[in-house]
Amino acid sequence: MLVLGIETSCDETGIALYDGINGIQAHCVYSQVEIHAAYGGVVPELASREHVRKTLSLIKQTLAEASIDIQDLDGIAYTAGPGLVGALLVGSSVARSLAFALDIPAFGVHHMEGHLLSPLLDDNPPSMPFLALLVSGGHTMLVDVRAHGDYHILGESLDDAAGEAFDKVAKMLGLGYPGGPAVEQLARSGRSGRFRFPRPMTNRPGLDFSFSGLKTFTLNTINEHGDSDAVRADVARAFVEAVVDTFVIKCRRALSQTDHKTLVVSGGVSANLALRDGLSEMARPLGATVHYPKFEFCTDNGAMIAYAGHCRLSAGASEPLGFGVRPRWPLDSLPTPAIGSTG
Ligand code: KG4
Ligand code: ZN
Question: Does domain 2-117+297-333 bear CATH number 3.30.420.40?
């Protein structure tokens, strides 16, 4: 089965083709980062307009790259939520209209299920059940993944998502948007140990997260010590170390609670090398393995949506013709598809 994936939930237009036998055939991402950077964050109306401008031409480009005729598509997957409502509506309208014209099914995918499944696109994919740490700009979650679609949220952020905290700290440090990669880079030149930031909610039981206090602590440290280049680098270092330690502590706890031996980490922040190092070091003595998406599939992309859609469409999932998007959508409310079919 050949599925076209369309991702338009935020500030990336992602398009991909996934084939049940040969995997990803082609994918491309148009990032709107430069447009939003001038405003220091995503401007929803501008995001929608850019998706309108780009979605169809990217679909044509992706089909051409894979030398696939549009008539050969068997289904279309689009991100139906969570995300910005105007942005979501662009992808869903294009997907639904194309599917109607081609007389093939379309299916609205949960964006976080896309992230959750993205490591399965790897050459050496993990198998379920596993523990998933989802760390993106909008969500931070620990999920007990018992089977495809059988997701139990063990913990989540009570306030800011991890990526959001990176973006806000980047702003405090005078770095551009999006902040994650810039903070990561600055932290590399900082000294470890000059500042010690709190590891929020780690000294009490439970698997929830909170990053807003860490953000305030960062601001207070900058205000107290000035913002020389050396202070900024040391602050970035202390912030990254605190975030990594927090995830290491919570993932160790969640692995022990669930008895899983496989940890899957995905979403934009999973591109962070300090986080990858910290989690691998934690997992080694436990005999657990850690899986990440390929770097190109850490941040938003169409491949994860094409893949998640393929899993559901090939298992027979269908939707009525009328449709809506779901800007807010709990991950643990998804149905479990009957898995086993391929093609
Ligand atoms: O998954 P994603 O592309 O979008 C959402 O679904 O939200 O994640 C984007 C987030 C941004 O907050 C960005 O700053 C963060 O991921 N990010 C990183 C890194 N690369 C992207 N955070 C830390 N280190 C990175 N290398
Ligand atoms: Zn995302």
Answer: yes
